[in-house]
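Researcher: Quick sanity check before group meeting.
Model: Go ahead. Protein one:
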Amino acid sequence: MSFSTALSIAASGMRSQASRITHVSENIANADTPGYRRKLVSFEPDRAPDATPGSVTTGRVRLDQTPLPQVYDPAHPLADETGHYAGSNVDMVVEIADARQAQRSYEANLRVFDQVRQMSSSLSDLLRR
């Protein structure tokens, strides 16, 4: 595997995890928004014509189809005649766990990127001697 291939794969992982962190952040920000459905991000192999084999990209963003909880608050403007309205299906524990996992995966890809860059620099130094 060449240095540029390894750098490209690590960079695609960082881009994908950054996108995941963005969607997790949106979920957390909208956890109390009535009717909000959690966004789900999946990863898939990058099939672009110029893509490096082994690189990944984010797939289509999907909405979590689990039922929205019914919240009882007769004073809420969206409440129906029974005093209920549709809440959000965002679970903060799950979102925080997803955010930590995405952060750690991003950091792992960053370490790979830095290691490859350092190896490339060391090789260049050796070849100059």
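Researcher: Fine. The other one?
Model: Protein two, sequence then structure:
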Amino acid sequence: MSAVVMGAAVWPDGVPSPALRRRAETAGRLFLAGQAERIVATGAVGEHPPSEAEASAKILTGMGVPSDRILLENLSTSTLENLVQTRRLLGPRARVVIVTDSWHLPRALLTARRLGLDASGVTTPLRGGNPWRITKAVIREVPALFWYALRRLPRDNLS
């Protein structure tokens, strides 16, 4: 099984946002506990470099995850793209555990399963999270979940 770190912002000077740090650290703990064979770090360069995937990989290697067990997916800018690119890296029926925040997990799981991935999920602890940002993220997820449930997913060039 592969752990998939869903992307989140990188702040100025390449500092991972608390959400990205929580996600990467949770995936790293899964790997170090023998619950994942490898980790897919997802996310392109956003407002600030490096890519979200590279920032996650730095956290993971700092925890002792070997770099050859980390796959970088640094093309995506959305949940859908994270998982389409992950499917391309791992194959159409890959077993994955998606690592993300609790409010984001339903949409990520829905998307992964609709893409044919054998997906389960693990949520991150909220320590270090800004309550205002968390509230905004939860409010954003309600319409986003409905949009992802109703939208057509790309079927071409997925493998």
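Researcher: One line on it for the slide.
Model: Strands lie at 2-5, 10-11, 15-16, 38-42, 70-73, 95-100, 118-123.
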